[in-house]
Design goal:
With 328 residues, this protein is an alpha/beta fold. The protein folds into two domains: 21-197, P-loop containing nucleotide triphosphate hydrolases (Rossmann fold, 3-Layer(aba) Sandwich); 225-324, Orthogonal Bundle (Helicase, Ruva Protein, domain 3), CATH 1.10.8.80. 47% of the residues lie in helices and 15% in strands. Strands 2-5-8-1-9 form a five-stranded parallel β-sheet. Strands 3-4 form a two-stranded antiparallel sheet. A two-stranded antiparallel sheet has the order 6-7. Strand 6 (138-141) and strand 7 form a beta hairpin. Helix 3 (34-46) crosses helix 11 (262-278), helix 10 packs across helix 11 (262-278) and helix 12 packs antiparallel against helix 14 (314-324).
Length: 328
């Protein structure tokens, strides 16, 4: 087993060289936001879609655009608005009066990196148009189904639900996002650096440093990263504790309407592997699971009316679970 881990470690060290190049390029444009940038890379490496929530002006869109600029791939930004239609997203059939045939006009979803900007400003029927693409990596237009090119990643931004003109995302769609990130304002030092960088001269540019092939190769190595049986049991315990907290002596049952789905276990495992890859390790530790646990679980736990009345959030419940589940 040690020999296997050593071989995986060598692969990780070889394939993760581009990570530092990517970070260096992104840092030319983005000040601070290390949490956001690291999570974007985890999504890229673990083949998982990401939902980014924060007030306007926190570089959500800029970070995603900058990441796409460092990759030799097709990028598409889609601005979600209340009048957007599903056909504007996935494409439609266009009638040709000369021969009476219908031809397929593909929509902007046919790209490698999709930035779904302000996704919760469009109604549910448009948001639902993303479901098939996100889960099955395919799109159906009329009677034809089209496979999407790899890598395919949806990076969606949303404004806090309390803001004007927002629609809550359907639970089925939210569950398809591997990670949900919650951004906060920069600190004083970062704020000063942002002001300095963007008030003098032209905006910085980044170079393309990796190709889609590099991403696909890195993803294969990520899947091979070793996860010990005890760590796997730890993942299952965490997820199961959100459904049956009493079994683990955690007194939050009345605060949870619905616990995390089985996708949570899958994504904790995959995101843990990607986190280990970023740290240059060929094996997953409980710390990797703790580091990405909040981002995997915060949108998968639906709190009860009682919790809302007491102003207890899903994040509070996730913290309780991690605090009380025994670490292997």
């Amino acid at each position: 087993m040690n020999q296997d881990i050593k071989a995986i470690q060598e692969k990780v060290e070889k394939e993760s060289i581009f990570v530092q190049q990517l970070l260096s390029e992104i840092e030319k444009v983005i000040v601070g936001q290390k949490y956001l940038v690291e999570r974007l890379l985890i999504g890229l490496l673990a083949d998982g879609h990401i939902l980014i929530e924060g007030v306007p002006g926190l570089a959500k869109t800029l970070s995603v655009k900058t990441l796409s600029d460092t990759i030799q791939t097709k990028f598409q930004r889609i601005q979600f608005t209340p009048d957007l239609l599903p056909a504007d997203l996935i494409g439609t059939l266009v009638y040709n009066p000369q021969n009476g045939d219908f031809t397929t006009k593909k929509g902007p979803i046919f790209a490698n990196l999709i930035l779904a900007d302000e996704i919760n400003r469009a109604p549910a029927k448009v948001q639902s148009a993303l479901l098939e693409a996100m889960q099955e990596r395919q799109v159906t237009i009329g009677e034809n189904t089209f496979k999407l090119d790899q890598p395919f990643l949806v990076l969606a931004t949303q404004n806090p639900i309390e803001q004007e003109g927002t629609y809550p995302l359907p639970e089925a769609q939210v569950d398809r996002f591997m990670l949900k990130l919650s951004l906060t304002y920069p600190d004083r030092k970062e704020e000063f650096e942002i002001m300095e960088r963007y008030t003098v001269g032209d905006a910085p540019r980044v170079d393309k440093v990796i190709s889609p092939k590099d991403i696909v190769k890195a993803r294969q190595v990520v899947k091979e990263i070793y996860v010990d049986e005890k760590v796997k049991q730890y993942i299952v315990d965490i997820v199961y504790a959100t459904r049956r907290p009493d079994d683990y002596g955690i007194k939050v049952k009345d605060l949870i309407a619905y616990g995390a789905s089985p996708r949570a276990s899958i994504y904790l495992n995959l995101a843990g592997k990607a986190h280990a890859f970023l740290k240059g390790r060929g094996y997953v530790t409980p710390e990797d699971i703790k580091s990405i646990g909040m981002d995997v679980l915060r949108h998968r736990i639906i709190v009860s009316y009682e919790a809302e009345a007491e102003e207890i959030t899903s994040e509070d419940i996730v913290r309780r679970v991690f605090d009380e589940i025994e670490v292997p």
